[in-house]
Specification:
Structural class: alpha/beta
Order of helices and strands: EEEEEEEHEHEHHEHEHEHEEHHH
Radius of gyration: 18 Å
Shape: globular
Number of helices: 10
Low-confidence stretches: none
Distance between the termini: 38 Å
Length: 292
């Protein structure tokens, strides 16, 4: 955090030569966990979560982000019974999965301190009471404080199968290829996810920004998904700045129509997207479709 004009600001990197400033009017919780620097504070978008100075979610826009990440997967998967969520410390994704009909949600997050701080201070996602329940494995959601890489290896050994796997991590670093969480964006990790999918199963990834001046990680993710899956569905939120990729085990001739047909029957009815959104947000940017 920096001081500017007598106020405190989080300086978020948008690239090697770009920064965005977030004014923090009140710090609710700040600490270095074993994995990252976490700050939860009041901003112009309400209570907001920052990890290593990157905005992860805000009270104002989190529903748009989380629905863009979750709803296409709900609609593309053959069924929603067993769900795996890697990351997504706030707990919103776990709640959505249960609302969509999941009877078992394995939530895997390596950073226990961050998850508990989110439950204590964010007005969305797990409450402290809910967090205690999912930590004990009571109910549909079971929280595992573990590395996603190792959890997938163990799940494969147990013979576990998931209808939907969602990976929601801090952004892939375009420069730090060997960073801890960058492993979970690579082809080998995507293949690990693929190996534990049930028939008709779907994988969804937060894939980066579509803006042409910072789309390096989106292009990488798009190419990786096309290496692993015959059917890759892009969803770029029209009211946020992030894109998501979804891969299904079996080939779908018309994934957009599959989503349109499934939406009316979906147990989770979204508040921030509809038929027109599904039609208009599923074409990858020109620079992604037409790579040099």
């Amino acid at each position: 955090m920096i001081e500017l004009d007598g106020q405190r600001w989080v300086q978020e990197s948008l690239g090697a030569d770009m920064r965005r400033l977030w004014r923090v009017d009140e710090v609710l919780w700040e600490d270095d966990t074993s994995y990252q620097h976490v700050l939860i504070g009041r901003t112009g978008q309400g209570i907001s979560l920052f990890c290593d100075n990157d905005r992860q979610s805000t009270e104002f826009s989190q529903i748009v982000y989380h629905e863009a990440m979750m709803v296409p997967g709900f609609l593309l998967a053959e069924k929603i019974d067993n769900v795996l969520i890697v990351g997504s410390s706030e707990g919103v994704a776990s709640r959505m999965a249960v609302d969509a009909g999941a009877t078992r949600v394995d939530h895997v997050d390596i950073d226990q301190e961050c998850v508990r701080a989110c439950a204590e201070h964010l007005p969305y996602g797990y409450t402290p009471t809910e967090l205690a329940e999912v930590e004990r494995g009571e109910g549909a959601v079971r929280l595992h404080y573990a590395d996603g890489w190792s959890f997938l290896e163990q799940a494969l050994g147990r013979g576990d199968r998931y209808d939907l796997i969602v990976v929601d991590l801090p952004d892939e670093s375009a420069e730090e290829a060997d960073s801890q969480h960058n492993r979970l964006y690579g082809v080998e990790f995507i293949r690990r996810c693929h190996a534990v999918l049930a028939p008709g199963g779907v994988i969804g990834f937060q894939a980066g920004s579509p803006t042409v001046w910072r789309n390096t990680t989106l292009v990488r993710a798009y190419n990786r998904f096309r290496t692993v899956f015959d059917t890759v569905t892009y969803f770029g939120s029209d009211e946020h700045e992030w894109s998501f990729l979804f891969g299904r085990v079996e080939q779908l001739d018309d994934p957009v129509n599959v989503m349109l047909e499934a939406l009316p029957q979906c147990s989770y009815q979204p508040a921030s997207l509809d038929d027109a959104t599904l039609i208009g947000s599923t074409v990858p940017p020109y620079s992604v479709r037409h790579q040099d």
